[in-house]
């Protein structure tokens, strides 16, 4: 419990640092009407966000491969936090027991991510509990990685819950990768083999894209072809240089 309180306090402090209007960076409560915070340092920090399966990773990968930009990925940090034997994994196992333990594992026990997903995407309280455990770890990883990359002119930060977790203050530019909810659903089902109900639950766990759109600096329409998405990136990447 002490560690959790400490983690929660760290995140609240981060939220306060990034966005003075923030009361709790973890919250997924309705949006405030205050302007979103932005990073104003010398480095360009492109925050790529969107909805689940809207195409964030595809955009991030393109920026990294075609424009050789360093890519920081919140999903990878969250995944690292839940490797076998980590403190966060032990906490999750303590809370949910064998229900989330990978079958046939010895020591240290690996998590069954599908089982954990089933829990957190069907129960908002449990989702909040997992988020208060993982998000401070993710936030620290961003801090460390950004310090390491401080000499780079431009970095890309992929953060699915950028708005929900009030992390816009990490980014100088926020790009929203957009498509329709039925497309999100279709892509989720095709990519992850989810049922329609599971896909809908996951989409409902995030702010709807219509709520995120007005908060972004750039909306990339990824409802068409992959080529059309790449074209939009090319049209907007030229302005992405180190600040004067
Ligand atoms: C539940 C878990 C184990 C499922 O793992 P899985 O490998 O199936 O999915 P993955 O981690 O690749 O996430 C896929 C997408 O799910 C969405 N998602 C993940 N966590 C959340 C969440 N707490 N709320 C809403 N959407 C979420 C994001 O769009 C993300 O890009 C995992 O998503 C997780 O640990 N989530 C809690 C941590 C978290 O909030 N991560 C978000 C980035 S900080
Ligand atoms: N324009 C597109 N047309 C068709 N399929 C697409 C398009 N863009 C992405 N996809 C596919 O949709 C799926 C989701 O894309 P991607 O993994 O990039 O989304 P994401 O936002 O990173 O997902 P998550 O939120 O789960 O991390 C992938 O299978 C990807 O290949």
UniProtKB/TrEMBL annotation:
Provide ranges: composition bias, Polar residues.
18-35
| One term of GO molecular function | dephospho-CoA kinase activity
Keywords in alphabetical order, please.
Answer: ATP-binding, Coenzyme A biosynthesis, Cytoplasm, Kinase, Nucleotide-binding, Transferase
GO terms for CC? cytoplasm
- Source gene? coaE
Gene Ontology biological-process annotations: coenzyme A biosynthetic process
Start and end residues of each stretch annotated as Disordered: 1-38
Give the catalytic activity.
Answer: 3'-dephospho-CoA + ATP = ADP + CoA + H(+)
Localization per Swiss-Prot or TrEMBL: Cytoplasm
- HAMAP family in alphabetical order: Dephospho_CoA_kinase
Which Enzyme Commission number(s) are on file for it? 2.7.1.24
Q: Where does ATP bind?
A: 53-58
Q: Which InterPro entries match?
A: Depp_CoAkinase, P-loop_NTPase
Q: Which residues form a coiled coil?
A: none
Main subcellular location of this protein, as a coarse class: cytoplasm
Known pathway:
Cofactor biosynthesis; coenzyme A biosynthesis; CoA from (R)-pantothenate: step 5/5
Protein name listed in UniProt: Dephospho-CoA kinase
Family per UniProt?
A: Belongs to the CoaE family.
Q: Which NCBIfam families match?
A: dephospho-CoA kinase (TIGR00152)
Pfam families for the chain: CoaE (PF01121)
- State the function annotated in the UniProt record: Catalyzes the phosphorylation of the 3'-hydroxyl group of dephosphocoenzyme A to form coenzyme A.
- The scientific name of the source species is Prochlorococcus marinus (strain MIT 9303)
